[in-house]
């Protein structure tokens, strides 16, 4: 399906990211594009489709299209197409900052059990972005 192909790599998208303009890319492809342009965070690059400004911070997961592609994969699995895994939502710096004071407090207190819990939270946070938890579970919605 051509609609499911990344405009950069032309491969079927697996971890979809959308720009504010509505253009969707595969995360690996657009991150490679941004890194090549030196624009991973605040500096801008040129969008490969619209030729407008592109900033690494204005990319968000496209959960709706990912679900459509996953449904297509499931419907076509008997034809040798494998289902794509649900990608992990990256932790935003502000979210990591929410956990850091707790980690520092338990470290100062020397509480080994709480240190283990805090370390697990840092490794596997369950923050929500657009109703989807970073562990792939969807809140109040059936897929």
CATH fold node name of the largest domain: Herpes Virus-1
Number of helices: 4
Spatial order of strands in the largest sheet: 2-1-5
* Residue runs with pLDDT of under 50 for 5 or more positions: 127-143
What is the name of the CATH superfamily of the largest domain?
A: Zinc/RING finger domain, C3HC4 (zinc finger)
Q: Using the alpha-carbon principal axes, give the shape.
A: flat
CATH 2nd-level architecture of the largest domain: 2-Layer Sandwich
Structural class: alpha+beta
- As for the number of domains, it is 2
Count of DSSP strands: 7
The helix content, as a percent range, equals 25-40%
According to CATH, what is the class of the largest domain? Alpha Beta
Rg over alpha carbons: 18 Å
Head-to-tail CA distance between termini = 21 Å
Estimated share of beta-strand residues: 5-15%
What's the SSE pattern?
EEHEEEHHHEE
Enzyme class: transferase
Catalytic activity: S-ubiquitinyl-[E2 ubiquitin-conjugating enzyme]-L-cysteine + [acceptor protein]-L-lysine = [E2 ubiquitin-conjugating enzyme]-L-cysteine + N(6)-ubiquitinyl-[acceptor protein]-L-lysine
EC number: 2.3.2.27
Domain U-box: 1-79
Protein model, in words:
The protein is α+β, with helices and mostly antiparallel strands and 143 residues long. The chain has 2 domains: 2-79, Zinc/RING finger domain, C3HC4 (zinc finger) (Herpes Virus-1); 93-133, no CATH class. The chain has 4 helices and 7 strands. The strands form 3 sheets. The protein has a 3-stranded antiparallel sheet with strand order 2-1-5. The chain has a two-stranded antiparallel ribbon with strand order 3-4. A two-stranded antiparallel ribbon has the order 6-7. A hairpin with a 6-residue loop joins strand 3 and strand 4. The longest helix is centred in the last third of the chain and has 17 residues, at 93-109. It is flat and about 55 Å long. Mean pLDDT is 71; it is low at 127-143. Its EC number is 2.3.2.27. GO terms for molecular function: ubiquitin protein ligase activity. Functions as an E3 ubiquitin ligase.
């Amino acid at each position: 399906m051509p609609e499911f192909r990344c405009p950069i790599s032309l491969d079927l998208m697996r971890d979809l990211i959308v720009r504010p303009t509505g253009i969707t890319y595969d995360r690996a492809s657009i991150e490679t594009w941004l890194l090549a342009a030196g624009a991973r965070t605040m500096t801008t690059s040129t969008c490969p489709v619209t030729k407008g400004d592109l900033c690494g911070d204005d990319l968000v997961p496209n959960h709706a299209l990912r679900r459509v592609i996953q449904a297509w994969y499931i419907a076509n699995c008997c034809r040798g197409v494998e289902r794509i895994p649900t990608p992990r939502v990256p932790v935003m710096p502000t979210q990591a900052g929410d956990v850091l004071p707790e980690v520092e407090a338990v470290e100062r207190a020397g509480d080994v059990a709480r240190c283990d819990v805090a370390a697990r939270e840092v490794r596997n946070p369950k923050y929500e972005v657009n109703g989807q938890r970073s562990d792939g579970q969807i809140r109040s919605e059936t897929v």
